[in-house]
């Protein structure tokens, strides 16, 4: 998944003022550009406080975009998501009642009053950006737009889960004491940023993580080819893996290649270590999500990849909860590893695993 943060602030860094009315910070030109950005995304996320204060509908306004989406079998509006710890969300909010979209609520408690309006995704702990990204990705979201407010934007930045940040500043508007929800974004040193003027708004766009999709797809296809060499087995998936070290050395492996208990990632790692390769900062590509639980080995593939210091992991399909409740991608993300999933490459993976995928 790619994650874009987008917001507008006053010159003194406020997202809103303290009045009950919604404050319009953007120019019409900037607002139109945000509309086009929304149309390029699969889901939009805002915090519960933004829903309570502004009651936004979060719809796609351009009728031609809605028609195009319908024509390719998508719902006319992109999915909407929010998060709450208190559960204070009124089912009559426009988030729940307007538009034709999938809706997700991340919560620390079940919210039966919302069951007929949204999918409530419950966890015992406060939501993290890693978890939100992983859960939405499992539900088919490929590009998430995070629009605020301040708490939610900070959550994603603190966890390193923002790929692109679009910050629009109105240099003619200051609020001082009347301001609410201050949010300061300073581009980290060395990141590439561009600035443009949109109807008087100063819009800065920064790429925090390079787009690795082309290389990821190429290597995942190689991993899928490797997976074809493993034998069908009743208790595990046929998986392939490709490692690319920072020096550009390449190692491949597939399920049970040399050991009856080894997963594809272990086989590729064993070859790399035997060749004396340094795996720190390297990338690993698998046809399926690396496992997070092993009964027959001392550590899972996820633990192995974290221990060896991999920086990047990409795979085609999440592991279905058939043998274990998979937490591989989430655990890797929580350890600071950049993780990307490409479910559109999953057709071949399902075909290779037709013995299990009924
Ligand atoms: N100018 C812009 O571009 C823009 C865009 C969006 C929003 N805004 C403004 O931003 C303001 C709101 O910002 P805000 O920072 O006060 O609130 P917010 O970020 O919209 O939402 C904060 C709320 O999200 C929930 N939350 C936060 N972290 C959580 C976690 N880890 N787990 C579970 N729930 C969590 C909590 O809800 P509960 O209290 O329910 O537990 C928390 O009160 C509004 O005034 C809005 O107008 C401006």
Task: Kindly describe this structure.
There is one protein chain. This protein is α/β, with parallel strands linked by helices and 358 residues long. It has 2 domains: 2-207, Dihydrofolate Reductase, subunit A; 213-352, Cytidine Deaminase, domain 2. The protein has helices spanning 28-39, 48-54, 63-71, 94-97, 129-138, 150-158, 213-227, 264-274, 301-308, 328-334, 346-352, and strands spanning 2-10, 14-17, 43-47, 79-84, 103-107, 119-122, 143-148, 164-170, 179-182, 192-198, 201-207, 240-244, 250-254, 283-288, 312-317, 338-341. Strands 6-5-4-3-7-1-8-11-10 form a 9-stranded mixed β-sheet, sandwiched between helices. Strand 15, helix 10 and strand 16 (338-341) form a beta-alpha-beta unit. Helix 9 (301-308) runs parallel beside helix 10. The longest helix has 15 residues, at 213-227. The mean pLDDT is 95. Bound molecules: NADP nicotinamide-adenine-dinucleotide phosphate. The site of NADP nicotinamide-adenine-dinucleotide phosphate has 28 residues, from strand 1, strand 2, strand 3, helix 2 and strand 4. Residues 7-8, 15-16, 25, 46-50, 53-54, 83-86, 88, 126-127, 147-152, 155, 180-181 line the site of NADP nicotinamide-adenine-dinucleotide phosphate.
